[in-house]
Amino acid sequence: MRIHTDYFLTQMGRQWGWVVFRGLVAVLFGVLALLVSDREFETLTPIWGAYVAADGFLALLTAYQIREKNRPWWSLAVVGLVGIGAGWVIFALPGKTMGLPSLVALWSLAMGAFQIVAALRMRRSIKGEWSLILSGALAVLFGVLLFIIPSSYVAAIDWMIRGFAISFGVLVIAFGLRLRNAASAA
Q: Is the pTM of this model over 0.85?
């Protein structure tokens, strides 16, 4: 098990820049969302869709780069495919927001669950996996809240998206930097 985990850590460590970039994109989206008024927030729907698709693409790219027979790359590939699909729908159909919260909730739940699984796989090899676990838990909570809060509460959902993007991004950046340190020490 140790060899498997070390291999995974080494491969993920090589991708630390993509992990940090993923976090930066989330923070930038969140900051951009803070700068627009609530009335203009709907105009960010295509940008949110592009963010979700880009996040999925980065997850898929990372999965491709760490792939090897019998290695744990599939969870990243699933997250990537779900993100690309959800992002495309959000981006392509911005006016059709009826099912948008549910779609984003599904993406967030899948992404969060797989991030927690990945962090648990790495916990013996890296200190600081808590940031990946916490970002995954935050994504799961975000997804659950999107299912619970009625879509008629648009302002609440808008502020949740803003807060989620920034908080999630900061945690992913922290994990990426930990990953870089752990990989260089290995």
A: no
DSSP 70: T
Q: What are the structure tokens assigned to 74, written together? A: 């599939």
Q: Please answer whether residues 43 and 17 qualify as being in contact, where contact means their C-beta atoms are separated by less than 8 angstroms.
A: no
* 68: exposed, middle or buried (Cβ count in 10 Å: 0-12, 13-18, 19+): exposed
Q: Is 9 in contact with 17 (CB distance < 8 Å)? A: no
57 vs 77: CA distance, rounded Å: 9
Please report, for the chain, the start and end positions of each structural domain, with discontinuous segments joined by +.
Answer: 2-185
For residue 128, give the amino acid letter.
Answer: G
- As a whole number of Å, the end-to-end CA separation of the chain is 16
Residue 94, C-beta contacts closer than 8 angstroms, at least 6 positions apart: 42, 45, 46, 49
**How many Cβ atoms sit within 10 Å of the Cβ of residue 102?**
13
CA dihedral 156, 161, 162, 165 (to 10 degrees): 160
- Kindly report, residue by residue over 42-98, the tens digit of the pLDDT: 777 777 788 888 888 888 887 787 676 555 677 778 888 888 988 888 777 766 555
CB 138 within 8 A of CB 164: yes
Dist. CA 104–CA 108, nearest whole Å: 6
